[in-house]
Task: structure prediction
Amino acid sequence: MISSKIRYTVIFFLIYSLPAFSQLNLRAYMDEARKDMNERNYFDAIQKLDVCIEINPNEYVAYFYRGVCKYSLKDNLGAELDLNSSMSAYNPLLYDAYHYRSLVKYRLGDYEGAVKDINHVIEGTANNLDPELYVERAFFKLSDQDFKGALGDCNTALANHYAGENVYLCRGMAENALTHYDSALINYAIAIKLNPKDIDVYLRTGMTDYTLEKYTDAIIQYNKALKIDSASTFAYFNRSEAYIKLDSTKQALTDLNTVITFDPMNAVAYFNRAVLEAGKNHYTDAITDFDKVLTINPKNIQALFNRANIKSQIKDYHGALADYNSAIDLFPYYVEAYYERGKIKEALKDYNGAKSDYRMGKIAAQITHLGDTLQKAHDSAALVRLMALNSNFSSETQKLSDTTHIDLLPLYRMTVKTANRENANCIPVLLKKIHKEYIHFCLTNKEASIADTSKENASVMRNENEQSGDALLEKAVSETNMQLFSAASADYTKLITEDTASAINYFARGVNMCRKTEILGQLNNDQQYSYVNKTYKVANNPSVEGYEKAIADFNKVIQLEPDFVYAYYDRAYAKYKLQDLEGAIQDYNQALQIDHDFTDAYYNRGLLLFLRSDKIDACEDFSKAGELGLTQAYLIIKTYCTEVTK
Result:
């Protein structure tokens, strides 16, 4: 993503500008931080850069490097603050800072700001300009809907002898947006010749073929993409749409099932599958899928409307009425919903209500047609997006991160007890089998910041010669909480080698592996993006091995300490990450048999039961979690459980 010359500067830039009075350890920490960055050990680098900034709060180079690390870890707001700090004084890395800040602003959706920042880089490096910068700016302009500007930058890059496939991909995307489909296909073909293994070009080609109603050709392109990445949900999803156009419902359903297997919270895949099931008169299956859409995104108006239509078809008039009411509450200009609700009211012999709805439908049709306010136009556009069967879930408005409102409560992890830690967030580690309470440890699922953890445990981390028993475990726990996962893993393994019967060491190592897998697995996936605006894709899951190792450690804990409830809880979390829904539910069951008041286990089990469509049992779990003091459970109950009865 970063042009080669600036990347070279980032990795190898010598800090010649350090003032003469700087302490020697500042140079040492900075050199170590740059080494960690080179090896992608960003958490370790941030720890060392924190020390540099503490030694010299005006050290702009440390702010710059820390900003780069935070960018690499997707901490965009933190990266922007650090890059701003690095630019506040004269800085030989000024254009590098502008460059990274442009990428951060792009991620934050400030496309205009991204273009302005990269303009500074292009203007400031005009004497030794990397033409790749024009390509990056072209991608920014694509997202800012400046398609002609994007084309211009691509042409400028080519005029300056840029020869990479990405310029043709970008140019093809711009031509496609301008409805110059033949030109788009020509550019994609050149990009494929330059790099036959670039999945994005095949996907974009398929999308253009689909637009041209060349559905068989589109399928061929998606097949080629899937040979490169057999887990690309984008390819499966779009191929399913092409199959739908060819009336190949069976193949379309197979592809949608695959999408849901890889991404079990993908609302649009459930939506499309529901539409297909309804078309086959499989009304129960269709309603189940629409239920899941609304679990993930309760404001999906078209899911409510379609579910209401199906309920009307099977003569569940009261259920249909409730769904039409919800759809109209969310979108008061929904003409079809008024007419359909009127029919339901007629069936229920509410003739005055039906008459009122028909009248409101006519008024809404006139208002929608006139488009007399910008807000109505915005609402109408949103509705059209929701109604479209071929909704593109890779778009900014359809990403899972924008539609998912609930998630499992996090792992329980160990941390070092301190005098200022609130007891409410700290459960002392107690292992019943050996009747030993580790007074200097506690369990919590409340995240502490890296900085806070570092300060709490600074004395432990400095005492590297103290390697015996509890001291080494305390050091390893501190490393886990500072996200120094590799160092922690080495210490846990040493402890386990010395004492193979200590359950707490296995538990701590399992937590360390889970946290490392979750965070660094996401980071490794991001490394596949060579440009910020390329097609959404899912690579083969690199996290499986990490979670399996964590589960093996939790298994050992349970073998040694069968009543240690948090091992079941954390193992359930790891199983869920491996899409073992039933296994996770069984572990929450076991945890609740041991501790009947385990609030978080009730909540998490409720979410999984709801995902499995066991609504009554799920809502009972939410209710129990709320009674035990978890207030957010009541928000779930209010949203999803108001109509659930025995």
Summary: The mean pLDDT is 80. The longest strand covers residues 436-444.
